[in-house]
What does this fold into?
Amino acid sequence: MSVYRTAQVATAGGPFEIVEREVPQPGPGHVRVAVEACGVCHSDSLFVNGGLPGVRFPVVPGHEIAGRIEDLGAGAENAWQVGDRVAVGWFGGSCGHCTPCRQGDFVVCRYLKVPGWAYDGGYAETVVAPVDSLARIPDALAAADAAPMACAGVTTYNGLRRSSARPGDLVAVLGIGGLGHLGVQYAAAMGFETVAIARGAAKADFAKELGAHHYVDSTADTPVADALQALGGAKAVLATAANSEAISATVDGLSPRGELVVIGVDPEPLAISPAQLIMSGKVVRGHASGTAQDVQDTLAFSALHGIRPMTETVPLDAVDEAYRKMMSGAARFRMVLTTR
It folds into this structure.
């Protein structure tokens, strides 16, 4: 009997433990992936803590997966081969029959198959995933770089490219941490006049290294909105910081018909009034991740422009340490588990 190792949490909020399981065979329309790297995302805490309906314990989190196909289920051979390098992200497959799916809007599928929720995730040496979740990884990207791109990367990249901003427009990225350090790189590479917003003057040089043309210190005497208006007003703000107060403070910095794209999650409500939006036609939009094709586009764009996440890699055995470091905010900036 062949076995593989996986990191599971037996009870809500409990510690990780490494266990061995029998290697599964992929069913029709599925593949088995030999995991080489898996990012540790803050959203994994929703599963570790049982914070979403339907989470079953023991749970194996992980939705930033990079590896190689090692076995094909029936029907998968039409598009995939053993040895193909693939990534699987938050979009771990769709149902194909709900109204959003029938309209082609798969990422808001009512029965979205998120790894670690719908099926065992990538904190393991092996994962079985549906073929509609697979994105091809370019040869130029290492697995440890590709893995975070399947969630953090596609979320920022897609949030920007689906915004109303066009090359040459002023675009601001709020926060330059785990999501924002990628957002600034993408914004600059897309041809936007890029503003990085963060706390403290000391982060200005780092923001410029990422490609920002301007830096706004949110703790300075000048309010963020005034600083953005002094630059001409932002056509779009990509809000990566998980802070509703900071997100709300950017709205008045938008240009007419400007767009606030929210990807940072904070349970507190946004403090935005209708009057701030109506007269100038401003838009507030939530954005989550992207489909497998969006992930593939993100990976290709990153390879073309030399964009990489800043990562700390640790072996699967150190999963508990990696998860706790991510949760504490001490990671710089994405923790990645490696198995090969």
Summary: The radius of gyration is 20 Å.
